[in-house]
Amino acid sequence: MNGAARRSLRRVGVIDDDYMTARLICTLLELDGYQAAHFLNSPTLSDNLVTAGVGAVICDNRMPGRSGSEVLALLRADSRLRDVRAVLMSGLPMDEAAWRTQGADAFLLKPFTHRHLLAALTAAGIGPLSGL
Questions:
Q1: What band does 3 get if pLDDT is binned at 50, 70 and 90?
Q2: What is the domain-level CATH number for residue 107?
Q3: pTM for the complete prediction?
Q4: Which of 53, 71, 129, 130 is the most buried (most CB within 10 A)?
Q5: Residue 120 lies in a domain
Q6: Residue 132 lies in a domain
């Protein structure tokens, strides 16, 4: 497997330039039984996600360097990651056609509650955990 963990929907990658937001999301996911890890929007992001075996990502849309939309396009173009479930999050509202066109399976508007986070995971096909 070239050092890569087997992919699992129980493993969620949180891609965000804001450490505190990423840590909060990871903590909430872990409370619900997911394995969550924070990933930086780096040149090695795709390889890092593959190595970690993530089956889903929650990606901020507004980040320095590549936007969340660009990150999702990168994932969709990578044969190792194209079927990873994706939640795009933003502090700006987006209509469904816009976020779906950008490669997301669901959208999460910031600020959000724990319930909103779980609803976005369910909409993306990665929750509830008991159904995995």
A1: low
A2: 3.40.50.2300
A3: 0.90
A4: 71
A5: yes
A6: no
